[in-house]
Amino acid sequence: MFFNLNSNKMFFMFIIFFSTMISISSNSWFGCWIGLEINLLSFIPLISNTNNILSSEASLKYFLVQSIASINFLFCIILNMILMKNFEMNTFISMMINSSLLMKMGSTPFHFWFPNIVSGLSWFNNFILMTWQKISPIILLSYYFNKNFLIIIIILNAMIGAIGGLNQTSLRKIMAFSSINNLGWMISSMMISENLWMMYFFLYSFMISIMCFLFYLTNMSFINQLYFFNINYLIKLSLLINFLSLGGLPPFIGFFPKWIIINFLMMNNFFFMTFILIMTSLIMLFFYIRILYSSFMFNYLKLKWMKIFIKNKMMYFINFFSFISIFGLILSTFFFL
């Protein structure tokens, strides 16, 4: 099962939750750093698997990257304590702290580790990495950020997330670049207000959870595996709605927070950033629709190397999530009337 976790895994899941609470509720930078370190050390046992070489490699890469970001973060905290009075140094230190937190969450230009690690993880670990693991860095980023630096980062996130996903055939890597693109929207919502960020993050997590769950149940890893589901069009319909919602196409529910962000950016004269965010969303929709069009139009009956087992009990989950997707579509149409 997707949530088939033994007692050890459940313990580490609890520690991940607990460490995030430590980070975001701490009243000192050092306490935030401790929470991030506990989070790192509790996530590695979840992703490492001795039976899977890719998972072992991904856990080692994740440990190295996060350790470098943590060292940089701690170094900047100490520098900030020593050189508090110098404004120019404080601006530099704020950019350094922002950079270490951006590396933690897999944002550009520190995103190179993210697609590689995602491709070696299970769908459940992917879901945690794309959603929960971003909470602590983004909230810490909202405490102390350099506005001009973050505007550049938002534009880079939107562009690299859209362009990087064009040439991918792996569904995990497509979801990784989609996460990088959505991170640009997430950081811009964080700059506007905490409530808007929470709404965007909740809706994004909801859509990602449905997609990861469906990919897990149907054992899909690559685009060409989407061509085989002539047995159940509810799977394709659910993926259609959630892909387009993730891309931000109206009247799907994923467009609603993006609409609010665009309104705010236009009111505050961020015209170039708004233009980049909208254009990159169109690129994202292009390769989502390309995948969906192929999966609806092409049907291969059977290939010898292709084995997909869907148990009867799993179909109830798929139908349930399809219903949620359709209900979300109906609900979102009332938002825009």
General description of the model:
By secondary structure, the chain is mostly helical. The protein has one domain (7-335). 75% of the residues lie in helices and 0% in strands. It has 14 helices and no strands. It starts with 6 loop residues before the first helix and ends with a helix. The mean pLDDT is 84. It catalyses: a ubiquinone + NADH + 5 H(+)(in) = a ubiquinol + NAD(+) + 4 H(+)(out). It is a multi-pass membrane protein. One of its GO terms (molecular function) is NADH dehydrogenase (ubiquinone) activity. This is NADH-ubiquinone oxidoreductase chain 2. It is an enzyme of class 7 (translocase).
Dominant shape: globular
Rounded radius of gyration (Å): 20 Å
Mean pLDDT across all residues, rounded? 84
* Largest sheet data: none
How many helical stretches?
A: 14
Order of helices and strands: HHHHHHHHHHHHHH
Helix content percent band: over 70%
Q: Which consecutive residue ranges, at least 5 long each, have pLDDT under 50?
A: none
- Cα distance, first to last residue? 40 Å
Domain count: 1
Structural class: mainly alpha
Strand content: under 5%
Tell me how many strands there are: 0
Subcellular location: Mitochondrion inner membrane
Pfam family, one: Proton_antipo_M
Enzyme class: translocase
EC number: 7.1.1.2
SSE topology sketch:
Blueprint: H1 7-25, H2 29-47, H3 53-82, H4 87-105, H5 113-118, H6 123-130, H7 135-143, H8 147-164, H9 171-192, H10 194-217, H11 233-247, H12 255-267, H13 271-297, H14 312-335
Helix pairs in contact: 1-2, 1-7, 2-3, 3-4, 4-7, 6-10, 8-9, 8-13, 9-10, 9-13, 10-11, 10-12, 11-13, 11-14
